[in-house]
Amino acid sequence: MKTSIEQRLRDLQHFGEEGGVVPVIDVAATSTFLNPEDMARTFQGELPGCYLYSRHSNPTVKAFSAKIAALEGTEAALGVSSGMAAITASLLQLLRQGDHLISSRVVYGGTYALFENLLPRFGIEVSFVDLDDEAALAAAVRPGRTKVLYAETMSNPMLTISDLPRLARFKEKHGLKLVIDNTFAPLMVSPARFGADVVVHSATKFLSGAADMIAGAVAGPRAFVDSLVDVNHGAVMLTGPVMDPRTAHELYLRLDHLPLRVRAHSAAALDFASFAEKLGVPTIYPGLASHPHHARLREIANPGFGFGGMVTIDCGDPKRALALAKQLQDARFGLYAVSLGFSRTLMSCPAVSTSSEIPEDKRRAMKLHEGLLRLSIGFTGHAEEMHERFAKAWKAL
After folding, report:
1. Whole-model pTM?
2. What is d(CA 86, CA 114) in angstroms, rounded to the nearest whole number?
């Protein structure tokens, strides 16, 4: 019998001192070498199991990283300081001056700004492409220069679903590395199973679940993860976006109940999206049969975790979107705040917040209208009461 993701998480156990059922928090910034000669050998990579300095490795971060590897089904993983750190470090490790990156045109605004404004300073060119347009995707390849294909499993905020099997075939054909941001779909989809070389997360979101910390993670082959902390060439080691061990410890404990939370978010989101659609609200949710990628997600999804906790609705224009958000916040339906994966519903207008870095003409091309309201559906509250509060606010517009 194939071991399930939940069983992999459950079977991974790190004991604390004196036999504690959870690991201790090791906050030491540096480690003692009882044999002074071993320090030089560790710097040269000859003793990979030795702890050197917390920017290089830390026992608590290592325990958390092992759980991320179990979650994603990869050989290894590494906790870092934020989701953007995970993306940036991964790409700086994979790309060099003169290289070319192909990215989905529908990505998080911070990712877009990194690709459009910062990577070119390092001599790295980026092309944004509709990844469902096979002709455009093929035309974007620059032989000898294109090295990485980047996409989000479920895009922010349009909730489009990447065709991971097809992207994997494409990257194999052209000798590329496939990097997938799986922040919106933890447990639901396992990108490495379909050929993703590197999987990144903003652990701030669903992995944390409490909106109380900033963190990220990178998962992939052992050789790649080890390269990130190489003392001479590692993008994490040399730029320094390390994860604090206190954060790693908190996240380590929370991953055990991630399956429960993902199911709860998915159930609440499907319930809300179904209600909103019946109410006549233009609703984007991959769990609805009306979503253009509903069947695609069903094909690649791990069974039992639903369709995610994110819903986007089209209010028609920005004034209506803001008015609806204010009424919903006043009615205690949700909180007007960026981020996602919290136990309560969070709402934001992407065009003026998390996607504001994307120029207006490009937002229009991807149908990211100013009237969109993105909702990260929480799992607290009574469904019928939430329906009533939303319907009252919507009808009052």
Report:
1. 0.96
2. 12
